[in-house]
Amino acid sequence: MERFVITIARENGSGGRMIGESLAKYLNVPFYNRALLRLASDESGISEQLFAKADEDVRRTHLFRVARDALRGEVIPPDSDDFVSNENLFRYQARIILELARTENCVIIGRCADYILKDNPNVVRIFIHAPMPDRIQTIMKRHNLSEEAARKEIARVDKRRANYYRTFTGSDWRDAGHYDLCLDSTALGSERCVELAAKFVKLRLEI
């Protein structure tokens, strides 16, 4: 069959990144998370730190226009004042995602990959979520935080992810309609999430 890509969006503290890594190992394909920033930096010549900062500093401007351009792999040229704008940083990431989908099988975490690849028939879009009490416990342990601090950290990261997604897609990040499969990592456990996701991918794509 043609190349396939699995995209994973996740709530903070749900274990989505770990599930994505495990799924990639299970299927023996590359896993891309922050490595996308490095690839986009290499492609553009723009500092990787600027790509990372853009994740924290995105604003709701130019909805849809950026996304449509990005879906064609278009970027702003270096001689433009907007070359290092958040919009152009997103476009470079989108270009990398489109190229990965064209050249290899892989698992991609976040970066609006589900939207960028929405017209690709060989993409499986997965969303990982979990009840808030379990997410709080996870973040408390991961960062050695109090319960209140963990709750605030979850709210901060989830808000950033929601804003980033809405900025470049005009849509709600948590809308189940964007995904082929939504998994509760508490109800199922990480291992079963990986097993079910792998089975779904094989059935969905006939691989």
CATH class: Alpha Beta
Order of helices and strands: EHEHHHHEHEHHEHH
Shape: globular
Secondary structural class = alpha/beta
**Number of helical regions:** 10
% residues in beta strands: 5-15%
Strand order of the largest sheet: 2-3-1-4-5
What name does the CATH topology carry?
Rossmann fold
How much helicity do the residues have? Answer: 55-70%
Total individual domains? 1
> Which parts are unreliable, with pLDDT below 50 for 5 consecutive residues or more?
none
Rounded to the nearest angstrom, the distance between the terminal CA atoms is 7 Å
The biggest beta sheet is recorded as: 5 strands, parallel
Oligomeric state of this protein: single chain
By DSSP, the count of extended strands is 5
How would you state the average pLDDT, rounded? 83
User: What Rg is obtained from the alpha carbons, in whole angstroms?
Assistant: 17 Å
Q: In CATH terms, what is the architecture? A: 3-Layer(aba) Sandwich
The CATH homologous superfamily:
P-loop containing nucleotide triphosphate hydrolases
How does this model look, in words?
The protein has helices spanning 16-27, 35-44, 48-57, 65-71, 86-103, 113-116, 132-143, 147-169, 185-188, 190-205; strands at 5-10, 31-32, 106-109, 123-129, 181-184. The protein has a single domain (5-205), classed as Rossmann fold (3-Layer(aba) Sandwich). The protein is an alpha/beta fold and 207 residues long.
